[in-house]
């Protein structure tokens, strides 16, 4: 558990280091995530000491958004000013995204179906 | 009143308020059948903001306590690699159509949101906070910060997008005649991140698994794509 948590922190640190050195405009933890994914693909499986702390963190992921979200209270003026643009942008773009993604993927539906049935194991997020 | 002054200045107090509110709103949401409109994070934000405004507490004071929760976003983002790896192993033969759908969806989400908001005269800070609205808050908060937007506004818009995605997807699937579970789940993950993924599980386990895969892929891709897109569109 502790080792796995340390691994997550080290990958985050590596990601942040790469961002600082390279000047990439990408969040350090995202680079850390890509590095860890590459490591897992190279290794071929997820060891339990990493899986347990990772799943514990992700199980409560929604709670972790609250402190940043409360910062909305400092932008109430901005919301008042831009609410119509925000609402229109969110509705139109969410609908368009659903249409585009579903239409592109739908032709592969049968293959996806066959693939998931041929392999055992349930997905969980 | 002295009691209040004592506790309001303690980081511990705001840690307790945050966790208690979240547990209560999660319980309430489960009792109401898990509706995305009353998502526990949205309701928690509303309640905590009202509480802070009523007690005249500044965000800085609140954050002194809440930062201990906020800090865990970094390692949690790295941890997204674990479910991503699990899904990746199962679908690697079909990676190409999935990646295409994810990339097209992610670009559509960002470009259309930016163009509509820009056409309606949104301010620059709003534009840069709206751009990452389709990806999980874990990533959107970091991306908004990098782009020069407001992380807190971004996380609020992410949640509203999540709720909208869950409401808009079923009628759109009916109109387009989308019946496949994997396509439904993946599309929800691209357009509505974790909230869409949770909603996809109602179509079945496979829809949920594809939703989780889509959420991770879209988050990673968007983090790298947005800085380019924003400069291409000449924003910022």
From TrEMBL, chain A:
Compartments in which it is found: Cell membrane
Transmembrane segments: 24-44, 56-77, 83-105
InterPro entries (alphabetical): LrgA/CidA
UniProt topology in membrane: Multi-pass membrane protein
Stored Pfam families: LrgA
Main localization category: membrane
Keywords per UniProt: Cell membrane, Membrane, Transmembrane, Transmembrane helix
Keyword NAD assigned: no
Name of the protein this chain belongs to: CidA/LrgA family protein
Organism name: Amphritea pacifica
From TrEMBL, chain B:
Keywords, ordered alphabetically: Membrane, Transmembrane, Transmembrane helix
Subcellular location: Membrane
Membrane-spanning parts: 12-29, 41-59, 65-85, 94-117, 153-173, 185-206, 212-235
Main location: membrane
Membrane topology: Multi-pass membrane protein
PANTHER family the UniProt entry points to: PLASTIDAL GLYCOLATE_GLYCERATE TRANSLOCATOR 1, CHLOROPLASTIC (PTHR30249:SF0), PUTATIVE SEROTONIN TRANSPORTER (PTHR30249)
Listed name of the protein: LrgB family protein
Organism name: Amphritea pacifica
Lineage: Bacteria, Pseudomonadati, Pseudomonadota, Gammaproteobacteria, Oceanospirillales
